[in-house]
Design brief:
The chain is built from 6 helices and 10 strands. By secondary structure, it is α+β, with helices and mostly antiparallel strands. β8 (167-170) and β9 (177-180) form a beta hairpin. The protein is globular and about 55 Å long. 35% of the residues are buried. The model has no long low-confidence stretch (mean pLDDT 94).
């Protein structure tokens, strides 16, 4: 192998990659999809949601924050791991308010799409029915905290690359919620609709005004193909 190249196996498939990559990035490049929610390829990984957890050399770890090691053995697509992921997704649904049939992000929502991919029909846990503040103070952006899943993508994007630090978390435990750096709400911050932070939300917590139905229902990303299909399309067919 070329200098600096590592080799590992995931679900029995051998992958070669470069030293310094995370497991999830290496698998993305190889066309092997690992479910995720908080991870975004343009942002620093946070390891918050744990949906990308894999079994690595016999131990469970989040793929987004695990660097590839030569010879590592990874399990990803197993019944137990997918059941654990489904439980996490179901808990995210009941901890917030996610009315998918009439949500502005339906068909483009990563939480909804993962629910479909993992076989969710309805959450098995009781709903919390929380009441969170809705912030409509910004002329171009609508902030609906009832959809927030605490992925931290907007926080990381606002810090880097936007350089504005508009978002942070406030409170702890079940009381933790998304906070904006402005006494008058989002409209009192420096955030703009062109910011990276306005375009990385996996659900419908951050919505660009006058843009929600530009792509009609039924024609959106996950209406056409399941989540992860774009990554799986990169996989090269084995030599015949």
């Amino acid at each position: 192998m070329p200098l600096g190249t590592l080799q590992f196996t995931i679900d029995g498939i051998t992958v070669q990659t470069q030293d310094g990559q995370s497991l999830i990035a290496a698998c993305d490049a190889a066309g092997l999809y690992i479910p995720r929610l908080c991870y975004h390829p343009d942002l620093r990984p946070a390891g918050n949601c744990r949906v990308c957890t894999c079994r690595i050399d016999g131990h469970q770890a989040a793929a987004c924050v695990t660097p590839v090691r030569d010879g590592m053995v990874v399990e990803n697509d197993t019944p137990q791991l997918n059941a654990d992921r489904l439980a996490l997704i179901e808990m995210m649904f009941v901890e917030g308010n996610h009315p998918c049939p009439y949500c502005v992000a339906s068909g483009d929502c990563e939480l909804q799409a993962l629910g479909y991919r993992l076989g969710m029909t309805a959450p098995v846990y009781p709903f919390f029915w929380p009441r969170h503040e809705i912030d409509a103070s910004h002329p171009d952006i609508f902030l609906d905290r009832e959809r927030c899943i605490a992925c931290s993508r907007c926080i990381e994007a606002s810090r880097m690359p936007d350089g504005k630090s508009v978002f942070s978390y406030e409170g702890r435990g079940i009381a933790m919620h998304l906070h904006v750096d402005g006494w008058g709400g989002l409209g009192a911050t420096q955030m703009a609709a062109i910011d990276k932070a306005a375009h990385v939300c996996p659900v419908a917590c951050i919505v660009i005004r006058r843009d929600g139905y530009r792509i009609p229902n039924g024609q959106r990303r996950f209406d056409k193909t399941p989540i992860g299909t774009d990554i799986e399309a990169r996989r090269k067919a084995p030599p015949s």
